[in-house]
Amino acid sequence: MATVVDYSHVLNQLTAAGFRSLYYNSGAFGFEQGIEAEIIGWIGPRDPSIRDQAQAWTYPLQEPFPPNLARLLCLAWCKSLPGNLWLMPKSHWAYELDFGNRDWLPEVLNAISINSADLQKLTNAAAIQFTPDDTEELEYFTRALMDKLQGSDFAAVFPAHGTVATLHHHKQIWWQTNSPKIALELKTLGASAQSTQSSSS
């Protein structure tokens, strides 16, 4: 069952793992300066806002985008990033539940047994922790985010693996990792999804 991890613990763990907070009390984390990281993007609808130089990092997927992205995230987690996963807003919970995505997010949180009323009080990005037994819950939650997010992004963080992913409201997942092995596996998954979906279309 998914649980909530206090933000102070999240911040301490991610700082120790070589990440830095990009905004106070937020779920936006990046690598400390001097740490080289590869970027990989799994892309849903065509997005002209992606810079030309970043196109080489992308793997466009086929429709339906939300379930394909959610399934691929879970596959990457199980195959390449074993252990617990932390998912959090890149803003904070009070903003998301009072303004950003209040029309649908409480229902989705409650469906994975997370009390949205408790999170609504938080002006920080306490993490929802998914264990390896929570794959179905993560896929459901990610699919909802990819389908319904408007103007906000979420982060999936794998502190034990030097890897963070942005779940972007344009129906995209952008990975950053300091592990060449994980980067290669994420690229392979993206390319495989392209090939499989193209052959079935």
Output the helix-strand order: EHEEEEHEHHHEHEEEH
Q: How far is it from the N-terminal to the C-terminal residue, by CA?
A: 36 Å
| Total strands | 10
- Bulk shape: globular
Largest beta-sheet details? 8 strands, mixed
Q: Helicity range of the residues?
A: 40-55%
Strand order of the largest sheet: 1-7-6-8-9-10-4-5
Mean pLDDT reading? 94
How large is the count of helical segments?
7
Radius of gyration: 16 Å
- Report low-confidence residues grouped into runs of 5 or more: none
Tell me the fraction of residues in β-strands, as a range: 15-25%
Structural class: alpha+beta
Task: Give the topology, please.
Layout: E1 3-5, H1 7-16, E2 19-21, E3 29-31, E4 38-43, E5 58-60, H2 65-80, E6 85-89, H3 93-100, H4 105-111, H5 116-120, E7 127-130, H6 135-148, E8 154-158, E9 163-168, E10 172-177, H7 180-200
Parallel strand pairs: 4-5
Antiparallel strand pairs: 1-7, 2-3, 4-10, 6-7, 6-8, 8-9, 9-10
Helix pairs in contact: 2-6, 2-7
